[in-house]
Amino acid sequence: LREFRIVPPAPDHLTHLASHHGLINQGGQAVAYALRQLQNLSLIRFAIDDFESLTSRYDSDSTDAILLRVAVLLKAHVRREDTVARIADSDFAILTPAAGRFEAAVLAERLRNEIAAEQFWIDGQPQALTISASIATVGRDPIHSFDALQELADEMQLPMKLLTAEYNLDSSRLTFLFSSEERVDFRELVRRLSGKFQVRVEL
Average pLDDT for residues 16-34, to the nearest whole number? Predict the structure, then answer.
């Protein structure tokens, strides 16, 4: 198979990661290539938990320093062919060519642990930080465009950690396994996922 290289997208003004616009441009190419070559492709979405409370208590220089440090940590733990982007104020994404659900989940968990273990500082005080992650995968999920890939990742952006998603043998049921430190109401998510996949969905 030919090697697929993603052209570096336009950078985010703060972190110098790919911007959301750049990710969309490259994501469209990557999804088309993955579908054409029958390869996996995963999109991992990250959101900094309770970042709004930090922005309400500290100035922009302090919170920007947090975003910059998170960007450095994410960039340090991906492959050369992966694209790391800042897609909103405190939201990031990683596009991982040729990575299936398992590989993407391993990467997401490693990054969550790295962020949780990092010592962040604001105004001379230590600040604990955690991130929530969600994953969508071409070749595993019924995805035919980058918009669909982003939409599925958005739908999974709840206060829970997705561990895996498995079909049963006859593909009539799709089971998502997750963990969460708080109670999650996922009734609407189950309804939307059942409609999208046209199968019975269990969480």
Answer: 87
